[in-house]
Design brief:
Elements: H1 2-11, E1 26-32, E2 39-45, E3 55-58, E4 62-68, H2 73-83, H3 88-97, E5 105-111, E6 115-120, E7 129-133, E8 139-142, E9 146-151, E10 153-157, H4 164-175, H5 180-193, E11 203-209, E12 221-227, H6 233-248, E13 256-258, H7 261-272, H8 292-304, E14 316-318, H9 319-325, H10 350-353, H11 363-368, H12 379-382, H13 387-390, H14 415-427
Antiparallel strand pairs: 1-2, 1-10, 2-11, 3-4, 4-5, 5-6, 6-9, 7-8, 7-10, 11-12, 13-14
């Protein structure tokens, strides 16, 4: 342990570049679930991609949230110290020991034994502080300049409207029931209801780790969801969390629905239609009941739609996939990839939008695109999805060709995105405005 501490202190940066002054103006909560062993972090910020900066966790070890002028080294170093036997309070004090900018840091840690700690530096912008819980069940609250120690969780925030944000987070977390992720999400929503960040909202993340619970058991990232940029990142995080449960969690007994003849009749229309990008139908003839042929077709459809963990051959179906498939699948109720509703340009798009160039394309541009009808086999057109978003090759418009422009910076993007970008910029003249 002594050699590790010496090595970590030697790695501390001697100075922070003068241009690195952006801070993760943030509120977060780190927590440990003694019943399952889960460890997690939930965070929201008026800062882009907070999920790539603040949350750190390792199954069986601990969780860290590092924010304000966040020193991301606290994440890896704190987890390594806890893995070697340090408690969360000990790890926190060690990583800060040689940090000349600790007055600008804010960090929360919890270990796999339930020990929790939170620090808010004296130079963090108001309101800033944290909360945790004593072994006796009392809330410990503190502002700047001290480490607070407790059990189970630590909530911390900076540049808040008031201390109501962390108060709400602590209260909501303690009142909530269910899995750790549900309680973290409840705390995040309650924090925003308490005022949240003075500057608003932009990004959010939820990270929960459990041993061998990642995809196919290959890692411990049980839940890892990030909202990079959104006008309401908590609402978007809730939507993504619901999708994550649908696609990656096993069915609960109370969610199972018997495949009665009525349910079979609701599902058969989607199995009898020719699927997109498939050479044949899932089912060649109506069955009327849950026959082995119907069950096989339903299983193949569910595998195709990524409901792998909810496939069953016992005459039942999960209510989640049943609702999403439904009798109107492909018409009035499109699948998950086409359910997103745009409410104007995202913050990152506003720079283009105010120059008269909406990166998503204008309504007039979309109406000019030729579209095949449903009879032509293009179900995306029947759904009303703009062809510019589908990557389908459009016919040339019946008018004189417009001047084309080269679109740079496309490397690394999908062919679909490149096609959409090139068409939008090719058919819409770009006006360049020089700001003073």
């Amino acid at each position: 342990m002594h050699l590790l501490v010496v090595a970590l202190l030697a790695q501390q940066p001697t100075a922070v570049p003068s241009d690195f002054l952006k801070r993760a103006h943030t509120y977060s909560i780190v927590a440990y679930d003694s019943a399952t062993g889960d460890l997690g972090v939930a965070v929201q910020s008026k800062f882009p991609n907070v999920g790539g900066i603040v949350p750190w966790a390792r199954a069986g070890v601990g969780a860290v949230a590092t924010q304000s002028l966040g020193n991301t080294a606290y994440g890896a170093q704190g987890l390594e110290l806890m893995a070697r036997g340090a408690s969360a309070p000990e790890a926190l004090r060690i990583v800060m020991r040689g940090d000349t900018r600790r007055a600008q840091r804010q960090v929360g840690m919890v270990d796999a034994h339930g020990n929790a700690a939170s620090w808010t530096g004296d130079s963090c912008f108001d309101w800033a502080g944290g909360r945790t819980l004593t072994p006796g069940g009392d809330i410990v609250a503190a502002g700047k300049g001290q480490v607070i120690v407790g059990r189970g969780f630590a909530a911390q925030a900076n540049i808040m409207v008031s201390d109501q944000t962390v108060k709400n987070m602590a209260d909501a977390y303690l009142r909530a029931t269910g899995p750790l992720a549900d309680r973290l999400m409840a705390a995040l929503a309650a924090g925003q209801a308490g005022g949240g960040d003075k500057r608003g909202m932009e990004s959010a993340a939820l990270l929960v780790v459990r041993a061998d619970a990642g995809y196919l058991g290959g890692n411990d990232r049980y839940i890892d969801i990030r909202v990079y940029d959104d006008t309401n990142p908590i609402r978007e995080l809730q939507r993504l969390y619901a999708l994550h449960r649908l696609y990656f969690f096993q069915s609960r007994p109370e969610d199972l629905l018997p495949l009665t003849p009525d349910v079979v009749r609701q599902l058969e229309p989607i199995l009898l239609r020719e699927p997109v990008n498939q050479p044949q139908k899932w089912l060649d003839a109506a069955q009327g009941t849950a026959t082995p042929r119907f069950l096989e077709a339903l299983a193949n459809f569910m595998y195709w739609e990524n409901y792998d963990v909810r496939v069953r051959m016992d005459g039942k179906i999960d209510r989640g996939p049943h609702r999403r498939a439904g009798p109107d699948r492909g018409g009035a109720r499109p699948g998950p990839a086409h359910r997103r509703v745009r409410r104007g340009p995202r913050p990152a798009d506003r720079g283009l939008a105010h120059r008269g160039c909406d990166p998503r394309g204008s309504g007039r541009d979309r109406r000019q695109l030729p579209a095949r009808g449903a009879a032509g086999g293009d179900r995306r057109a029947a759904r009303g999805v703009p062809r510019v978003l589908t990557g389908a090759a459009p016919r040339a418009p019946a008018r004189a060709p417009l001047r084309r422009r080269e679109v740079g910076g496309a490397a690394g993007h999908s062919a679909e995105a490149q096609h959409g970008a090139s068409r939008r910029f090719a058919e819409r003249p770009v006006r360049v405005r020089k700001d003073a």
